[in-house]
Amino acid sequence: MSIATRSLPRTIGAHAILLTYTAIALFPVILVIMNSFKSRAGIFGAPLTPPTPKTFDLIGYTTVIGQGDFIHYFQNSLVVTVASLFFVLLFGAMAAFALSEYRFRGNTLMGLYLALGIMIPIRLGTVAILQLMVASGLVNTLTALILVYTAQGLPLAVFILSEFMKQVSDDLKNAGRIDGLSEYTIFFRLVLPLVRPSMATVAVFTMIPIWNDLWFPLILAPSEETKTVTLGAQLFLGQFVTNWNAILAALSLAIMPVLILYVIFSRQLIRGITSGAVK
Amino acid sequence: MAAETRPKRPFRWHIGIFLAPAVLVYTAIMILPLAGTLQLSLFRNIEQHQVFVGLQNFRTLFGDPNWSVNFWNALRNNVWFFIIHMLVQNPIGVLLAALLSSPRLRFSAFYRTAIFVPTILSFVIVGFAWKLILSPLWGVAPHMLDLVGLKSLFTPWLGKEEYALTALSLISVWQFVGIPMMLIYAALLSIPDEVLEAAECDGITGMSQFWKIKLPLILPSIGIISILTFVGNFNAFDLIYTAQGALAGPNYSTDILGTFLYRAFFGFQLQVGDPNMGAAIATMMFLIILGGVCVYLFLVQTRLRRYQF
């Protein structure tokens, strides 16, 4: 980039807009976490100030920790999300490659068939899914959730990944074929590394609905053993409607692990996006 | 693209192997149950037996005022919900991505990470947190407005019929702006430097470079985002449910198709759940979404130009 494109006012303007939006994005989160460390009087008296020694109080946290098994719920959510994500990305990339790379009879039809799932929420089939899980004895297992979320994530992953795979140069793949690489090697060694940035993007918004889903944990796996953190938080919040200390503490406990995980994970994600885009 | 020069081979097993896992899981867990549900909309439970009644359920949905008033209300609200997303969420997402992708911008990793934070939070957290913030009981929102001298503007937005839906739409925009931002950002980064340098050689820089060079190149991504927003909005349910409950108050003013379906399917208060009517509403949602997606696939996508670098 030449120096001609850089100018001080423009840089300042960009920072001003981004800072403003960052403030809007973070304000509610910070507000909730800040107030969760305060006494009831502090929460209502001065909601916008950080906790002072006078208003500092952990009563909310002691209430919450005395009530629910949040660490266990968190583990369940983690297992379900990671396993589903792995299957969605692997199966999705394979199918996207088949659809974008080969011409075969029924290609367009297969693409439309798989894309159908983007527009229909899998929730509409809940009753039949529940019957299926009951019949196969998978109710109240994490396996049921992983299966449902894999099916739910696949259509979008296939759709987006095949958009990106169309952009991978044909010459490169044909060069691989001339060198005698099998189709599997071409997929795993040539194409997958090239679409890594889009894989990272797909991963992020496959993961979010899975982590945050309330519906399927409630219906397929509501037992104490298999409760996810979202379901746990929802039930807890429902119980303590008027106990503001407990509500704010529960919200903070639900936010913080995700936030920590996200901060760790986002470095990888951003590196993936930027490194892949530099050609 | 014209790669049909390969000699005919007996059967290309690898295509099947690449497709099989995705197609099997998808068909068994998603398509078959969905088909089962759509089928339910043509049946009615009469004396413990599912009896085929044709389009009778749809006649009830559109003919019986108890149902049709609610249905049109939910559909209208849903359209408004979508319009707000298209007008607010996507332009903000494109703007943020364009700013973030400008070269040598400092702290861009920080901005990116921070702006995406609301998107990773669950509806349960978002719904509750905003309910608390907008609550007149806590007084954070009026206090904030007071700081800029606009306290008179405050009303309990979530409790007023005329504002509740817009407020909830904006909360949803707040939560999901990270997704268009990330998608556009990835698309902008994948534009090769040679193209931008060529533009600079021709004297196209800054704003005009964005409008003339970058925007046409990211149009396919904007198309994808629009259709994702459409589908997401017409399936929406969770935020309204956590913030306003299944009744989508006040006085059904925030009722969208998702909450309407939920009430029909599982029942609420005095009304008994009716899976068949629920399935009929689900079928209507299916048709609406199908219509939108067809418009995208056949009218929009075919006209977008794709570039291979």
Provide the descriptors you would attach to this structure in a database record.
heterodimer, A: 279 residues, MetI-like fold, 13 helices, 76% helix, B: mainly alpha, two-stranded antiparallel ribbon, two-stranded antiparallel sheet, 70% helix, transmembrane (chain A), transmembrane helix (chain A), membrane (chain A)
Descriptive account of the structure:
The complex is a heterodimer of chains A (279) and B (309). Helix content of chain A is 76%, strand content 0%. Chain A is mainly alpha-helical. Chain A is flat and about 75 Å long. The C terminus of chain A is likely disordered. With 309 residues, chain B is mainly α. Chain B has a domain of 179 residues: MetI-like (MetI-like fold, Orthogonal Bundle), CATH 1.10.3720.10. Helix content of chain B is 70%, strand content 4%. Chain B is built from 13 helices and four strands. In chain B, a hairpin with a 2-residue loop joins strand 3 and strand 4. The interface between A and B is large, with 105 and 99 residues.
Distance between the termini of chain A: 15 Å
Task: Extract low-pLDDT stretches of chain B.
Answer: none
Pair with the biggest interface: A-B, 105 and 99 residues
> Helix/strand/pairing class of chain B, anyone?
mainly alpha
The overall pLDDT average of chain B reads: 84
CATH architecture of the largest domain in chain A: Orthogonal Bundle
Rg result of chain A = 24 Å
Q: What is the CA-atom radius of gyration of chain B, in angstroms? A: 24 Å
Give the number of helices of chain B: 13
What string gives the helices and strands of chain A in order?
HHHHHHHHHHHHH
Q: Quick one: biggest sheet of chain A? A: none
Strand content of chain B: under 5%
Strand order of the largest sheet of chain B: 1-2
Instruction: Give the CATH level 1 class of the largest domain in chain A.
Output: Mainly Alpha
CATH fold call of the domain at 78-256 in chain B: MetI-like fold
Q: Tally of extended strands of chain B? A: 4
Extended strand count of chain A: 0
What is the second-level CATH architecture of the domain at 78-256 in chain B? Orthogonal Bundle
Report how far the terminal alpha carbons of chain B are from each other. Answer: 13 Å
Number of domains of chain A: 2
